[in-house]
Design goal:
- The complex is a heterotrimer of chains A (about 400), B (about 375) and C (about 160).
- Chain A is an all-alpha fold and about 400 residues long.
- Chain A contains 15 helices and one strand, in the order αααααααααααααααβ.
- Chain A has two domains: about 90 residues, no CATH class; about 290 residues, no CATH class.
- In chain A, about 65% of the residues lie in helices and about 0% in strands.
- Chain A is globular and about 65 Å long.
- Chain B is an alpha+beta fold and about 375 residues long.
- Chain B is built from 15 helices and ten strands.
- Chain C has a domain of about 90 residues: NADH:ubiquinone oxidoreductase Nqo5 subunit (Beta Polymerase, domain 2).
- Chain C contains three helices and eight strands.
- In chain C, strands 1, 2, 3, 4, 5 and 6 form a six-stranded mixed β-sheet that branches. Chain C has a two-stranded parallel ribbon with strand order 7-8.
- Classes of the chains: A mainly alpha (about 400), B alpha+beta (about 375), C alpha/beta (about 160).
- Chains A and B meet through helix 7, helix 11, helix 13, helix 14 and strand 1 of A and helix 4, helix 5, helix 7, strand 6 and helix 11 of B.
Amino acid sequence: MEGALRDNTIFSSVYDFVLNHVVPDGWDGWEWAAYGIAAMSVIMLVVNSLFALTTWYTYFERRLLGRFQNRIGPNRAGPFGLLQPIADAIKLLTKEDTLPRASDRLIFNVAPVLMLATTFMIVAVIPFGEGSFLADLNIGILYISGVSSMAVIAILMAGWASANKYAMFGSMRAVAALISYEIPVVLSLLSVVILTGSMSLVDIVEGQSLPYLLVLPLAFLVFVVGISAELNRPPFDLAEAESEIIAGYHTEYSGMKFGIFQLAEFANVLLASAIITLIFLQGWRWAILPSHLWFLLKVFGTATLFIWIRATLPRLRIDQVLAFAWKFLLPLGLINVLAAAIEKLVWADPSNSELLLMATINWGVAIVAVAVFATAVNNGRHVPVHTVIAGVPPGVSSAEGVY
Amino acid sequence: MALNTQPVTINIGPHHPSTHGVFRMRVTFDGENIQDMEMVVGYLHRGTEKLAEERQYTQVITLTDRLDYVASMTNNQAFVLSCEQLLHMQVPERGMYLRVIAAELQRIASHLIGIGFFLQDLGAFATPVMYCFRERERILDLFEMLCGARVTVSYMRIGGVFADTPDDFWPAYRRLLDDLPNYIDELDRLLSTNEILLIRTKNVAILDPAQAINGSITGPVLRSTGVAWDLRKANPYDVYDRLKFDVPVGAVGDNYDRFAIRLAEIRQSLRMLQQCAIQIEPGPVRATMEMLFRPPPGEAYVPIESPKGELGFYLVSDGSIAPYRCHVRAPSYINLSLLKEMLVGWKLADMIVTFGSIDINMGEVDR
Amino acid sequence: MTTAVSGQDLADILRQRLPEAVVASDDVAVLVRVDSIVAVCSFLQGNPEQDFKLLNSITSVDYIDHFELVYRITSLDHNASAVLKLRVVGRDEPTVPSVSSVWAGANLQEREVYDLMGIHFSGHPNLKRVFLWEGFQGHPLRRDYLEPPLPYTWPQGG
């Protein structure tokens, strides 16, 4: 872990600079200070890049949504509207910071901070390119699932502390959905871990000679759908269902606290896209472009998928969301784990051709499983559309002249 | 183990992104299930009926525009038909055809809004709304050619319509009639078999036909329950008796039928518009009459089929230049009679969708 | 074309079943006695020969010396329509029986008449003001309604 950070050029240059030029000669034992300052500078770089990327991701989302909806999207603030996120940030900063009188003040203020904190904690284990990460935990996947569950607490805190019935509705729904979708998500990650043999994200990327999108399609499907629900993205955005309960758990937040919730939500989308890229799309590999750029392109491609789904689909009801998780995704996740485990047993260290064989088997299993469970869960709701076209109503003649 | 829960009463509206205007409901929930609902209206009450008593009949036409502001042509039509019954007046043929053209175009525009916002209430964030508005813009452009206004038109006059069509109207009209069927087919393909739409709206808030008739429900909501009652067929006015069209009727009476029937009605309106374009002949568009007229004492009521239901103006005249009493039989208001019965037993998410499926307009509810 | 059942024909039908109900009739409408409106409406709604299942509208007109209530009803199966009228005398809380037990659609319409014209409906399940707020004084659609001179303060509505 520490070794990797020391290999980082920025870290080492700042470390050397502080140790050699800032600390006066003759002072001993100040390595910890140099280490701290250097680490902070790397972290600042990563965090600020994440912020910047998130804000421009919101701009990208609004433009793309606009194109889906036959309109332009923000194009006024700056050339092509590129300064729109800055305008939004300034607006949010200058707004009044409201606090409902009946609210629990401490929890009200802590909730957005907690939400953003979980985002940052996940950033720590994401590798952005070849050898470029803040920490390579050997339990990376476990750490990510654990930390992302803390976001549930933040949402619950926000809804409760708002002292607003709408907010309580929103947060209750969100909590129910989030904890239901943890399990399918973790199961799909588990199948990847089985095939790789390691929970470290760097190992997963390095170990993919064929992207796991092809080898484990069911895992990809379950993960994408499950993570959409965890992120409160449409069609699972019942926690902030704008048309029903206005804004759900962040109704009472204004100004930058609301901004932090939005930031955390979009940053989570980007992080989820990053995780999908690392786990299913081979991360930064394939050496046409430099690894960081390749990673960025893949992340934005996956994020576009989320935007596309948002523009197209209406929203599900809470009981349908929960039924979907427990009755559809969970069995699929289990089947996936079973298939991955059996394959790992048979081919402990698969070559490329064996991987292709595994991929074919898994695609077959995926299609059959989805078909079987889709019909089983459906309750025969595919009643053909029938609006009867009648002619003239009974007892009425149609040509009697004007009154 | 039974949890000890307490029902909670929430106030939905009047400021709410999805209540189609300023509408307030006080709903009692047990968890997510609706137990009771009380509606509070009147936030847009402007006293239209009282104002009409102080204005000449022609001036009241501008008041009628603003009742159902999404479908003002049909409001005008209902009012001038009642006035003409008071005056026992005949309208020239071309005037009647232009009225029907305007009314059917308005019906398409109003149903497009109904469909778009129904999907917005379901959560399909603005995409269907934008698609529907794209075509509505073309219809509003046609209205602008006809009378200069897009939304509150005041196009119809007692005795006919305001003026004849300009030259560039008919080519634009024909282009619209060529493009719109493909466009409605595209909407149909995108929406009618969408899994999430089906799962959210099928068999939700079913209305029984006998209950609907007893609740004075009219319009697409009544027809979606299976009752084939359309005033354009049952009691034709203007030239509807010369047009061939079908009356779409729903099978179940759930939210899905109320949505699908509007799509089907747009198709029938397109049929009527095609026939009008063929049947219309040149001629005067308005009967001559004096500017300031005093109808003989009496009363009149001619109900029409507006996009929301049966709309009619009950006019009582005492021989003066202004109506003695002008009462609006507002379909949106009366269609809310059974809202509570439709909502109780369903969930919070269904509440907004059911309310949107009735497709009301607050200008008409409150007048 | 919807046949408009004339007042005289409707009066003849009603006189056979409910002889004291009819006061007068003309081409358009039947004038019914106030007390027997519910019986008349139940008969017209329930009897399959008349079958006036749809209540189109309930309107009220203020003719200074009396109020007139106009009920428009339609039979879908026979495609016929009819008009019933009631005359109520007295401006201080005039009361009329409510027909909301016969047609559920009468509920909201009677509330509107009560709110704007001030006619009370006995037996109505929820006779509250609908457009104006509780605490508003007066009934604006009456011909003698005068707005109080400014400045005035109203008790706030709920």
